[in-house]
């Protein structure tokens, strides 16, 4: 079992603040790194799939970066909105296996 | 709506009951997964079916029995469960290539989960 760590575990920010979280994963046997957004009572939905060292992806106010050599990925949210409140999961993929972190729970306070 | 539907959403069962969880995907995918989410723990892979063949088992207790009759449907049959089996059970699907590694950018599509309580 591979270790995928996410920090912080939870986060409360004010509406309008920018924030970021970290996903740490093994630096060997890398295949892909996924970020999922999981709202309460809904399904986790893929935000980004990153495959190359140095990848940067952006979707609206949310962006992510990837460093496969040192084994980390950052997720950034610019100008947080209450609708951004969710748990953000990262998953390290090696071959056909996915290893998930425990997630970062974000609450955006209006 | 992710195209993956799970039923029931909630299930309460006694330790001697037999029940089944159902998952259906409308995405034309050929791989389906069962994951378990316990409190404060990461998602744990239980079973993978790719092209209707079980690929991974991950040493799940035999009181959990998966069934994949076709590429669109996946079941998890439950019997003589323990209270520690109480958790959220998530189904997912993806486009796979069987025992070959699928494309790097393939992602998982999840259902909303079944919240299981074992009394």
Structure summary:
Chain A is mainly β and about 110 residues long. Chain A is built from no helices and eleven strands. In chain B, strands 2, 4, 5, 6, 9, 10 and 11 form a seven-stranded mixed β-sheet that branches. A four-stranded antiparallel β-sheet of chain B has the order 1-3-8-7, with no helix packed on it.
Write a structural description:
- The complex is a heterodimer of chains A (110) and B (119).
- Chain A is mainly β.
- Helices cover 0% and strands 56% of the residues of chain A.
- In chain A, the strands form 2 sheets. In chain A, strands 2, 4, 5, 9, 10 and 11 form a 6-stranded mixed β-sheet that branches.
- Chain B is mostly beta strands.
- In chain B, strand 4 and strand 5 form a beta hairpin.
- Chain B is globular, with a radius of gyration of 14 Å.
- At the A-B interface, strand 4, strand 5, strand 9 and strand 10 of A face strand 5 and strand 10 of B.
For the record, give the distance between the C-alpha atoms at the N and C termini of chain B, rounded to a whole number.
31 Å
Q: What Rg of chain A do the Cα atoms give? A: 13 Å
Question: What is the average per-residue confidence, as pLDDT of chain B, rounded to a whole number?
Answer: 89
Strand content of chain B: over 45%
Q: What low-confidence regions of chain B span 5 or more consecutive residues with pLDDT below 50?
A: none
Structural class of chain A: mainly beta
- Portion of residues in helices of chain B? under 10%
